[in-house]
Design goal:
Elements (H helix, E strand, L loop, with lengths): L9 E4 L3 E4 L3 E2 L15 H13 L4 E3 L8 H10 L7 E6 L1 E5 L2 E4 L3 H15 L4 E6 L8 H4 L1 H8 L3 E7 L3 H8 L6 E3 L10 H10 L2 E2 L13 H10 L4 H12 L12 H9 L7 H8 L1
Parallel strand pairs: 3-4, 4-5, 5-8, 8-9, 9-10, 10-11
Antiparallel strand pairs: 1-2, 6-7
Helix pairs in contact: 1-2, 1-10, 3-5, 8-9
Keywords: Oxidoreductase
InterPro entries: AKR, Aldo-Keto_reductase, NAD(P)_OxRdtase_dom_sf, NADP_OxRdtase_dom
GO molecular function, one term: oxidoreductase activity
Length: 282
């Protein structure tokens, strides 16, 4: 495992939309079990507004968050949007209750998801639309059919995938260009190492979800000592490690707290040494 010595602060999605690598994930601005609207909607709107005011220009959401409430909240808080703000959303899940997620790759559902996201987010074009999961009940070419149509109609600019292996990325690329992959990845869970390396080679963005996990117990002493050296929190070190791991990693830590938002954004200022990175990576 290698890293760049100096972490770049920006990344170009699709090779042309430049964004700051520390963004914001909207999932936590929902009710318990990612079901229903944010319990404190006024504070949730302030968190989104504060994030953008602090320089965040990449926000990740999904039609399944709420469902639908998260996209509506983002529009209510931020519309009309700043010109440089990239809002990425996702489709391909059905929700039947708190913590219940049902994969649905039916082309009809995907088309409805895209049209619904455009309406709720008040967008003419979704800059980055991501497929939540492959659905074994449908060939990927069928699932992505409405996505191809939406791209050709100018309703979607770029397309990404979530929780996929390399073979799945390659099969999707036979249908449509893929610019990003969003997989579970953090300091303590690196099961998708080969997928990350593949995205590096291909110039795709890699968006780790659950980025704040700081690793197993055996890492705690190392993380604590490195955090103390940088006068940082363990969560900030976990984010700084991801930023140094690869220059195509986009961070989307989510929070419903203004205090935690500022803490997460400050992680962009932490530059781990090669020695720190190596110690954490063992």
């Amino acid at each position: 495992m290698s890293s760049t010595t100096k972490s770049a602060s920006t990344f170009k999605v699709g090779g042309d939309i430049e964004i700051n690598r520390v963004g914001y994930g909207g999932m936590q601005l929902t009710g318990k079990g990612v079901w229903g609207d944010a319990p404190d909607r006024d504070t949730a709107k302030k968190v989104l507004q504060a994030a953008v005011a602090a320089g965040v220009n990449f926000i990740d959401t999904a039609d399944s968050y709420g469902p639908h409430t998260n996209e509506v909240l983002i529009a209510d808080a931020l519309y009309p949007y700043p010109k440089n703000l990239l809002i990425a959303t996702k489709g391909g899940f059905e929700r039947t209750g708190p913590n219940k997620w049902i994969v649905n790759g039916d082309p009809k559902h995907i088309k409805e998801a895209i049209e619904g996201s455009l309406k709720r987010l008040k967008l003419d074009v979704i800059d980055l639309w991501q497929l939540h999961r492959f659905d074994s009940k449908f060939p990927i070419a069928e699932t992505l059919g409405p996505v191809v149509d939406a791209v050709q109609a100018g309703k979607i600019r770029y397309v990404g995938l979530s929780e996929v292996d390399v073979k799945q990325i390659e099969s999707a690329e036979k249908v449509i260009p893929i610019v990003s992959v969003q997989n579970l990845y953090n300091l303590g869970n690196r099961q998708w190492e080969n997928v990350l390396d593949y995205t590096v080679q291909r110039g795709m963005a890699f968006i780790p979800w659950y980025p704040l996990a700081s690793g197993p117990d055996k890492l705690k002493s190392k993380i604590t000592s490195i955090a103390e050296k940088h006068q940082a929190t363990t969560a900030q070190i976990a984010l700084a490690w991801l930023a140094k791991r690869a220059s195509n990693i986009l961070l989307i830590p989510g929070t419903s707290s203004l205090e935690h938002l500022n803490e997460n954004l400050a992680a962009a200022n932490i530059e781990l040494s090669d020695e720190d990175f190596a110690a954490l990576s063992q």
